[in-house]
Amino acid sequence: MRTSACRTLTDRPQAGETEDTVPADLIPDPASEPRELADRSSADGVDQVPPAPSMAPSIAPSTASSAAGRVGAVQPRKPGASGTFDNPSKSLKQTWKPTHTRKKEVLKALGIFQRATADHLWRMLRPGDRHDRCTRDTLNALKGEGKVRVETRLESGHQLWVLTERGHKEAKQLFPKSARMSVLRKLQYDDDGEPVDGDGYDEHAAAVTSTAAVLTGAGYGTPLSWQTEIAHRLPYRYTQYADLTMRAPDAGVPAMLLEVDRVNEPVDDLTAKLRRYNDWFELLAPKADKDKEKAARRQGAAVHDFRLWSRIYPATGREGYVPVAFVFTGKTAAQRASRMRRLEQSARRYFAGTRYPWAGFTAVDYHQALPVVVTELERITADPAGAAGAVWRRLGREEWQTLSEALDNPDGERLYRVQEEESRRRQAERKAAEREAQRPVCARCGTKFTDERWQSVIQTSWGSTGDNLCGPCRKEDVDRAEAERAARREAEEAAVREAAEADAKKGRGLFGRRR
User: Fold this and answer.
1) CA angle 14, 20, 26 (to 5 degrees)
2) Average pLDDT over residues 115-141
3) Which residue spans within 121-164 are E strands per DSSP?
4) How confident is the model at residue 398 (pLDDT cuts 50, 70, 90)?
5) 354 Rama sector, left if φ>0, alpha if ψ -120 to 50, beta otherwise
6) Does the global pTM surpass 0.85?
7) 135 and 86 in contact (C-beta within 8 Å)?
8) At 511, is the pLDDT very low, low, confident or very high (cuts 50, 70, 90)?
9) DSSP track, 224-268
10) Quick check: 112 and 246 in contact, CB under 8 A?
11) CB within 8 A of 369, min separation 6: which ones?
12) Kind and range of the H or E element at 195?
């Protein structure tokens, strides 16, 4: 199994620092450093580092890319004089005086990543600095105090720094109890009792640390928010380790797992990693009810309340599991692009989600999908905005986006809610049309019944006299019938009166009169 830089950080060497020379006017002046950076209280940690983006590859020699100095990712570069460098000459008398805060930052970072070059630490801790000389001076000061040492010098010329036993103990005191520190790299000796250079630090380890550096420099978390080689144990006796675990809630990424690939593993192995991550995310939490979890699968995000991962990682704020990012580096751009396409084809079942089953819905259910994004370390370092730029691609999409855009699901639950409301509206319109088609028409004038007239007919039961007439026509018939009844009644009453009067007249005739 491949060992990354970060699990034990016992493998593969990476870089220390070359001593470059530069004009004296580029040497930093301690008095000109912003007070909030130079004079932070001892309680302040690396969490307060300004999130300026990284501008160049972290495996490159420790010179900045322009004489104008380091600038923010979204700031335009200022033209500088050619032939100048950002690394001050060590031979010059004016040097940078490391501050207590900077020393603590370096100790904490080495406590997390175990081994790093000055270039890595510069880009991770102080990406706003114009050069890495301040970081190198801090390392040398800590070396003089017996807290750090150079483990080896890499082929690139960079020195690889590690904590000594004294530095490891001091770094441990700077961490909260919940933080996870790397193990101590003990000094090794040869048969003659002489210290020997460390080994086992390879290019993969360098790429892992570089990835953390450029992401931190772009504002994604802080050195303390990274964890290395976190174990995800599976029930079939396999443990899937993540190269890096990032927590950057302020940047909209509460958690993300990162795998760094130097284009030297079979794509099938990368797909198998996604399968194992997917299996781990489906594990039930202790004492979770299996039947309730099974029923909750039809209720979107409700299913995660029964899963183990929700006890360990924070809610993602989006549908689906904690996202997984593949950072590719090495070989050629064409080989990296081919690798991404092959991974996309072979792992579709894990990240694609499922369509909602209702007709007319194009939204995708991502609640039990594994969001997978890919990028390239070379693409990040070439982009003016670094990792904060449009250097990420969500598998299943074609366009390159920012990380926030890539993790978003515009075709997911939000679209589902819109389409659900539209479906309800269409269904209501269809039912209204069907009901309208059934609305009775007046047999006399052809007018459609009103809802009130229709309801009254339904309540009195169909088939009664006048039920085929609308309200006005029915009223006319009722009024006419009432008038006819009144006329008959009056005629009858008149006839009775006339008959009575006739009888009375007849009784008062000639022979019926009293004398």
Assistant:
1) 125
2) 88
3) 148-153, 159-163
4) very high
5) beta
6) no
7) no
8) low
9) GGEEEEEEEEETTTEEEEEEEEEEEGGGTEEEEEEEEE-S-S-HH
10) no
11) 319, 320, 321, 350, 351, 352, 353, 354
12) strand 195-196
Grade residue 130 by pLDDT with cuts at 50, 70 and 90. confident
The candidate with the shortest Cα–Cα distance to 198, out of 161, 158, 243, is: 161
Q: What percent of the chain has pLDDT over 90?
A: 33
* CB contact at 8 A, 106 and 114: no
Cβ atoms 256, 325 nearer than 8 A: yes
Query: Position of tokens 């940690």?
Result: 45
Helix (H, G, I), strand (E, B) or coil at 399: coil
- Quote the radius of gyration of the chain (alpha carbons, Å): 41
What distance in Å separates the CA atoms of residue 367 and residue 351, rounded to the nearest whole number?
10
Predicted confidence (pLDDT) per residue in 87-101, tens digit:
444 444 445 677 888
Distance of alpha carbon 91 from alpha carbon 248, whole angstroms = 40
What is the distance in angstroms between the CA of the first residue and the CA of the last residue of the chain? 148
29 confidence band (pLDDT: 50, 70, 90)? very low
* Amino acid at site 116: A
Q: What tokens does 478 get?
A: 């009722």
